[in-house]
Amino acid sequence: MFLKEAKRVARLFASKSDYQLLGETEFELRDRVHDLADPSLQTALDARIKGGYRRSTMTCPHCHESSRCKGFKSRRLVSLFFGSMATLSP
């Protein structure tokens, strides 16, 4: 589907003269790209709703099994700056 739509976009651009590339052609291209992205975004959303992540990406070197995810560690923002606050002088 992606390649078909890419070919359609290429044909659309090839059929237009330089002064026709902006305006109506630009909006038509935007609509086609949005239509192309819709199924991909829906698939990603469905995977997240279902809980998509179930196993670790790390595998045991001995048994070659991946470990179960036991949850995520909550994190707290300490600073927007890199480095320690001690380096800042008033």
Can you give a write-up of this model?
The protein is 44% helix and 9% strand. The protein has helices at 2-15, 24-49, and strands spanning 55-59, 66-68. It has a two-stranded antiparallel ribbon. Helix 1 (2-15) runs antiparallel to helix 2 (24-49). The longest helix has 26 residues, at 24-49. It is elongated and about 60 Å long.
Helix and strand layout, with pairings?
Layout: H1 2-15, H2 24-49, E1 55-59, E2 66-68
Antiparallel strand pairs: 1-2
Helix pairs in contact: 1-2
Mean pLDDT: 70
Cα end-to-end separation: 59 Å
Low-confidence stretches: 83-90
How would you write the strand order of the largest sheet? 1-2
Oligomer: single chain
Keywords:
90 residues; mainly alpha; two-stranded antiparallel ribbon; disordered C terminus
